[in-house]
Amino acid sequence: MAEEKPQHGSLGGLVAGMREGHESGRTKELEWRQAQLGGLIRLITEEEDAIFNALHEDLGKHRVESFRDELGVLVKSFRNTLQNLKKWVAPEKAHAPLISFPCNALVVPEPIGVVLIFSCWNLPLGLALEPLSGALAAGNAVVLKPSELAPSTAAFLAANIPRYLDAKAVKVVQGGPEIGEELMEHRWDKVLFTGNARVGRIIMTKAAKHLTPVALELGSKCPCIVDWLDSKRDCQVAVNRIIGAKWSTCAGQACIAIDYILVEEQFAPILIELLKSTLERFFTEPEYMARILNEKHFDRLTNLLKDHQVASSIVHGGHADRKTLRIEPTILLNPPLDSDIMTEEIFGPLLPIVTVNKTEDCIAFLKPKPKPLAIYAFTKDEMLKQRIIAETSSGSVTFNDAIVQYGLDSVPFGGIGQSGFGQYHGKYSFELFSHRKAVLRRSLLIEFMFRYPPWDEYKMGMLRRVFRFDYLSLVLALLGLRHCCRTA
Ligand code: NAD
């Protein structure tokens, strides 16, 4: 199947074609939506090997990691959407007050229209197909713009999406920033963007021209609080999960990877020793950890370690090979808080550990910081858990694990504040790409003239009763049994 590599100027025709396709009404049909979800499931299952190869070429991901983080999560999510779709598309009955009788109120989800999705390179399949499935389930026509920085996956999507989905209503447009900006010159009914905040601002600015609503899935520094855990086993489980959420998910190149750890000073040496010994047991071969995307990102990460005070805080690792784009799992103890590694999102296999006097001090540490996508805490202290939920703000909070919230279809995924806005996954994806239309059906049977001019105090009194739902007083007033101007 030929890839779609548009020339400048040809995008207008593509967008118009998509709009025509959507306006034909085909994409609104439940059967069409179900067929697209079925197509997505077949795409992932039948093309598994091609996907493993693409993800390996782009990021050096091991096939088991790719299955755990992308293919497995996706197929589970598509099945969940397929199972529930009939229920989600059904109009919801809404309460209508007695005063409006006879009246029937409904909330009817309708497709937003033609949607543009920008995906990012780190989970190049997942971050493209997860939102795509939601947009299709909601009955939209979709243009997908995969990241040019994961070119094998982008080419795979461009070649295979037309084979499995309705090629007239789902298009893949490949290209870099210029194509992205050109796409944003056109009118869309919704744009979902996953990537960095600098480009997020460009997207939002361009979307404003057409009043297009956007969802921005951005990055942040996700902290992880590690409290004292009494048993050796609990400590080991926590460390396994920390490593899983730092080094085993695209080598830390994940928006919800643990960025840094906060821990009590006296517990830090124990934690570091356990991290080191477990890293040794987990990563027995270099290919069990993904590589850094490209030289630019490699240099960005190694530059974070160049500051003298940061370099002297390294307690494990620190080696990096630009040829293979591999950076050793690296642990730092108390790098300066004003250094780049502690002020910028790391997005790589470097883990600073910051010590505090008491675990509770972590809350004061986090409060003034920008709201992250996720806060993690390994603790059994229920009071601490409550305080974290109540006193901090973030896209999500996960206790005693990390990153796994991404795989749940029942909770929304998205940021807050500088980590973005707009939530998706499961039913939240369907809702993100649907418009909830209010539908009221009234009859012409009963008519209250006090809603209309000419105004007088009688009408004012009746309206006051209506808005208090004071039916008894209203009926008495209508029957002339109560002074109609009284408001009490
Ligand atoms: P990227 O380079 O893949 O860019 C994302 C998308 O934006 C791509 O499709 C790209 O082509 C497009 N793009 C780039 N410049 C553009 C422009 N000028 N106009 C229009 N489109 C343009 O990804 P990145 O920016 O390196 O992403 C890394 C960031 O994304 C990190 O901060 C990370 O935390 C964040 N991220 C967030 C999530 C999330 O779900 N919240 C997921 C993954 C990554």
TrEMBL record:
What residues sit in the active site?
Answer: 217, 255
InterPro entries per the record?
Answer: Ald_DH/histidinol_DH, Ald_DH_C, Ald_DH_N, Aldehyde_DH_dom, Aldehyde_DH_NAD(P)
Keyword NAD among UniProt keywords: yes
The UniProt keywords, alphabetically, are: NAD, Oxidoreductase
Specify the superkingdom.
Eukaryota
Tell me which Gene Ontology terms the entry assigns under biological process: aldehyde metabolic process; response to abscisic acid
Q: Which PANTHER family match?
A: ALDEHYDE DEHYDROGENASE (PTHR43570:SF21)
Protein name as it appears in the record: Aldehyde dehydrogenase
State the organism of origin. Answer: Oryza meyeriana var. granulata
